[in-house]
Specification:
Blueprint: H1 2-14, E1 17-18, H2 23-36, H3 43-49, E2 52-56, H4 59-63, H5 67-71, E3 86-90, E4 102-106, H6 112-123, H7 133-148, E5 151-156, H8 163-176, E6 181-186, H9 193-204, E7 210-211, E8 218-219, H10 226-232, E9 237-242, E10 260-265, E11 276-279, E12 289-293, E13 298-302, H11 314-330
Parallel strand pairs: 2-3, 2-5, 3-4, 5-6, 9-10, 10-11
Antiparallel strand pairs: 1-7, 7-8, 12-13
Helix pairs in contact: 1-11, 2-8, 6-7, 6-8
């Protein structure tokens, strides 16, 4: 979080743009929620209270192979209703599920958007067309199960599914909450994306993909997307930060081609001839760090796994760069 705050301060000083590698998924989720509304639940609430969990797509298990074990612990708090816990997997490859858990797989050869649309129709008891009779029967029974659930939750990664699918999921939840409890659990963006977004919002009132070139900050999810700015030549320099333990984000396609770059990384970096590379410590590994923690849906302080004071933090480097710029301007 300190590194994010320093990046925002430097961007403001230079009239630059702040973006995040995971901002596409974050902006999509925010845009759909703003247009249609949402009923999110915390990770702990889903783990302890949900009797039916609908897992959508491959990304949730790919992002966290232990996700289902966390959502279906051996011991949980008392849940509403009398239903046994059940997992519904929609449009995903076969994967590991907790032993003894009743699981319904809705897949077949049908594309994910059609599967979600059909399930949404079944929840609302509307007609839908699926040629596979066995699959159609499974979708109908799942729709009935969700209507009868005491607390159904849809789990997904907004970076994986398209806006129409997100709309369908949120519409299904809005229908269910008329008669029972239902919610969504959207996976947090990787690379402390949610934390950076929160830091940007409480700093300047706007999320990432915000420009400080004008008198007041301006947010535009298309105009201030990093790769578009690099490809169009509108950006003449890039500050690329990759210093979070366990996260590894590939830089934009043209990040190191003809664009002067300052790279702050805790990992080995292949840089261009005119680039400046600064080795920094990895947050959470080399030094203590405040980061967004999905289990608590908030910011928490995490102790370093192997403290190394010899490596500067991102905030140290960016703040020193800002100080040098101030001195140059003053002179």
């Amino acid at each position: 979080m300190n590194g994010a705050a320093a990046a925002l301060a430097l961007a403001q000083k230079l009239g630059g743009v702040v973006d995040h590698a995971a901002s596409e998924g974050m902006s999509r989720a925010a845009r759909v929620m703003r247009e249609t509304g949402s009923t999110p639940a915390s990770f702990g609430e889903v783990r302890n209270r949900a009797d039916t969990i609908v897992l959508i797509g491959d990304s949730p298990r790919a992002r966290d192979p232990e996700l289902l074990e966390k959502l279906f612990p051996a011991k949980a708090l008392p849940r509403p209703g009398d239903n046994a816990r059940e997992l519904v997997v929609v449009g995903a490859k076969k994967g590991k599920t907790p032993a003894g858990l009743r699981t319904t797989e809705i897949d077949g050869k049908t594309a994910l958007p059609e599967l979600v649309a059909s399930l949404g129709a079944a929840i609302r008891e509307l007609p839908f067309e699926i040629r596979d009779a066995a699959l159609a029967k499974k979708i109908l029974s799942t729709g009935k199960r969700l209507r009868e659930s005491a607390f159904a939750v849809f789990v997904y990664d907004p970076a994986e599914i398209e806006e129409p699918v997100l709309h369908t999921v949120l519409e299904a939840v809005r229908h269910l909450v008329k008669t029972t409890r239902a919610a969504t659990l959207s996976l947090a963006a990787p690379g402390n994306g949610e934390g950076v977004n929160l830091c940007s919002t409480w700093t300047c009132g706007l999320p990432v993909r915000t420009s400080f070139a004008g008198e007041t900050p301006e947010n535009n999810m298309w105009a201030f997307e990093t790769e578009r700015l690099l490809k169009s030549g509108e950006a003449d320099a890039l500050v690329w930060i990759d210093a979070l333990d366990g996260a590894d984000a590939a830089p934009p396609t043209r990040a190191f081609r003809g664009i002067s770059s300052v790279v702050l990384s805790s990992k080995p970096v292949k840089a261009g001839r005119d680039d400046v590379v600064v080795e920094v410590g990895a947050a959470v590994a080399d030094h203590d760090a405040a980061v967004y923690l999905p289990p608590i849906a908030g910011i928490g302080e995490v102790k370093a796994t192997s403290a190394d004071a010899s490596k500067p933090t991102v905030a140290d480097v960016l703040n020193k760069i800002g100080t040098l710029i101030d001195a140059k301007r003053a002179a």
